[in-house]
Each structure stands twice: as C-alpha cells, then as structure tokens.
C-alpha cells in the first residue's frame, strides 16, 4: 500500500497543470538519427552533448515535470561528472526510463510487430529505481493498413503492456503504457478513431484483467489523425473531438493521466492540436504532452551540433516547452508564435 501511495504522488507530480514530459529516451540507434539531422556522427560523446544540453537548459523546470531517459543516458553524466538523473532531480524534474527493447516482427502477420523486453525486467527496474527513476515507459506499435491491425497483434501487445505495468508497480515505479497508433499511412481520420478506440478498449480490459492499479498508471497515446499520406487533413478541432471521443469510449476515468506523443507531426501542429484538446474543457483525466520530436527538433535545427549555437538552441528548447505548457492549458496562440514551424 505504501508503494502505491508514493506512485500516486508521482502521477500527481508528472501531471502538474502547466507542465509536461520530455521524451528524451531514444535508443542509441534512434539518437543517431537525431544527430544525423545536425551532421554529427553517432558517437557516445555526441549523444552525451545532446542530452547534456537538453537537461541543463536554464528554465526548463518551469514547464517540464519529467524527462524519460534510455538505459545509456540514465547512467550518463555531465562533463562535470553530475549524473543526469541528479541534474534533473536538482531542478525538481522526475527522471523516467524507457524499458522496452524495441519491436520484433510477428511471423505470419504482415508488417505487424510485438514489443520485446520482459526478460529480467524486475531486476532492471530495481536498478533503475536506485538510479533515481520513478516512472517508466513501454511502447507498443500499431500499424493501420487495409487488413491491420489484427486483434491478435493488439491483444499480444496489450498483454505485454499489462505484464510490464504489473512489474513496474510492484517495484514502485509508475508505468506509462504507450500503444502508438502510427501516423504514417493513407487512412482517414475516422479509421484512426476506430482503431484507436479498439486498441484502447482491449488495452484497458487487459490491464483490468491483470489487476493493474489504473490510478498509478499513465496512458501515453497518439492523437487521432488522418494518415500522413491522406490528402484530407483535419482541423485541430476535428482532431481534438475525434481524440477525446476515442478516450471517452475506452479509457476508465480512474486512469491517473493521459500524455501525448507527437508521432511525426510538425512541432507547430503537435502544439496546436494539444491546445485544441485543452480548449475542449476539463476531462476526467489530466492531459498533457510527452513529446520527443516536437520538442527536440526546434532545438536541433538551432544547435546544428555547434557549441557556438548551444545557448540559442537551449532558448529554443525552452520556447518549445513553454508553448506546449501553454497549449496544455488551452492558452497557445499559434498566430503569435513565429518560432515553431
Ligand atoms: P514523438 O513525440 O517523437 O512521437 O516521441 C514520443 C515517444 O515517446 C515515442 O515513443
């Protein structure tokens, strides 16, 4: 019981109004793709520079309640030798950790994947707890195509998420469960809404079946969007309506909070859409952002891997965090923001 009380405190801290989460949890391979954008080779020192600049940016604590890290970065330190979790804790930002080990194809299921990473998970969690992590993330990937997602793919990913969430809560770590419905494709928004609702319904039925404490859990969801190849793109209000309808159909009200991934939307669209969702008024769950690309891209394009640009890039990071913190409250004014693209 004591552990659960602590987890409820963690949820409340992560879902503080006017704040959100930075997902700086790219695997070493994916971090390389970010560095490629600024023409830096994917080497440990460059990954460290990248994360150090993000985590030490002055003022981010005003807008960030948590930062999700990856196995190599939670063990990493600043040039001065301060461990990254301590850098965040000193600012009052909660350290988090991505614990899944990526996806594997499901044989016989065209293009569908299942997330790996349950082996030794309890031991890994205990170690991450000692390193300062108080929340975690596991990402499942759901693809929309003519004959996907299949129920089999949705179900096995839901079971993996439930098992991960059980183990996290046993250790006293708040699980973020992330079933990402992928934006790529030519589906329309209605199809995305149907798929998202079904995925969330099966996920929550499974979490309940496995006796996961929903109040000590956060859902990380995609927004309901027409596929990036679909010629009809929706307005922020349409996206907000479709997304909230899917949640109300599927997400029990006791869930501790809902956070969004940006999913390949431009930073500006991700911010505008969060703003439209907040403008729909109070919901049964606190809702905020947990973006990676939508927050990191403005930083990276300013930084360009050059130390001369570092200060300016940190200011851009702060700007992206601030705009999303405003959007979380429905107070973002896109027409006045010339910096986010
Ligand atoms: P994006 O915001 O770039 O979609 O990343 C969020 C995330 O955590 C994906 O797992």
Automatic annotation (TrEMBL):
One of its GO terms (molecular function) is fructose-bisphosphate aldolase activity. Gene3D superfamilies: Aldolase class I. The keyword Translocase does not apply. InterPro entries: Aldolase_TIM, FBA_I. It comes from Candidatus Kaiserbacteria bacterium RIFOXYD1_FULL_42_15. Pfam families: Glycolytic (PF00274). Its EC number is 4.1.2.13. Keywords: Glycolysis, Lyase. GO terms for biological process: glycolytic process. Pathway: Carbohydrate degradation; glycolysis; D-glyceraldehyde 3-phosphate and glycerone phosphate from D-glucose: step 4/4. Belongs to the class I fructose-bisphosphate aldolase family. The keyword Metal-binding does not apply. This is Probable fructose-bisphosphate aldolase class 1. It catalyses: beta-D-fructose 1,6-bisphosphate = D-glyceraldehyde 3-phosphate + dihydroxyacetone phosphate.
């Amino acid at each position: 019981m004591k552990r659960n009380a602590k987890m409820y405190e963690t949820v409340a801290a992560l879902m503080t109004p006017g704040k959100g989460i930075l997902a700086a949890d790219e695997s070493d391979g994916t971090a390389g793709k970010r560095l490629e954008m600024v023409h830096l080779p994917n080497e440990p020192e460059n990954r460290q520079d990248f994360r150090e600049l993000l985590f030490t940016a002055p003022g981010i604590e005003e807008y960030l309640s948590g930062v999700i890290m990856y196995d190599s970065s939670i063990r990493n330190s600043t040039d001065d030798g301060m461990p990254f979790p301590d850098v965040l804790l000193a600012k009052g930002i909660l350290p988090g950790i991505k614990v899944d080990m990526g996806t594997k194809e499901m044989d016989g299921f065209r293009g569908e994947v299942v997330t790996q990473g349950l082996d030794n998970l309890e031991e890994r969690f205990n170690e991450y707890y000692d390193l300062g992590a108080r929340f975690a993330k596991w990402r499942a990937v759901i693809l929309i195509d003519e004959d996907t997602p299949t129920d089999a793919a949705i179900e096995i990913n839901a079971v993996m998420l439930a098992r991960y969430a059980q183990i996290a809560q046993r250790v006293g770590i708040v699980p973020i469960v992330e079933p990402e419905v992928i934006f790529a494709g030519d589906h329309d928004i209605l199809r995305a809404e149907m798929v998202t609702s079904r995925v969330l319904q099966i996920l929550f039925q499974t979490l309940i079946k496995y006796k996961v404490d929903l109040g000590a859990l956060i859902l990380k969801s995609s927004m309901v969007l027409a596929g990036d190849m679909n010629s009809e793109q929706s307005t922020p209000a349409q996206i907000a309506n479709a997304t909230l309808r899917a949640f109300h159909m599927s997400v029990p009200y006791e869930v501790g909070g809902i956070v969004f991934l940006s999913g390949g939307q431009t930073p500006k669209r991700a911010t505008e859409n969060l703003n439209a969702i907040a403008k729909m008024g109070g919901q049964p769950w606190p809702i905020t952002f947990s973006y990676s690309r939508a927050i990191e891209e403005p930083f990276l394009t300013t930084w360009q891997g050059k130390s001369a640009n570092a200060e300016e890039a940190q200011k851009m990071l702060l700007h992206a965090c601030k705009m999303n913190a405003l959007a979380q409250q429905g107070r973002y004014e896109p027409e006045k923001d010339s910096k986010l693209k």
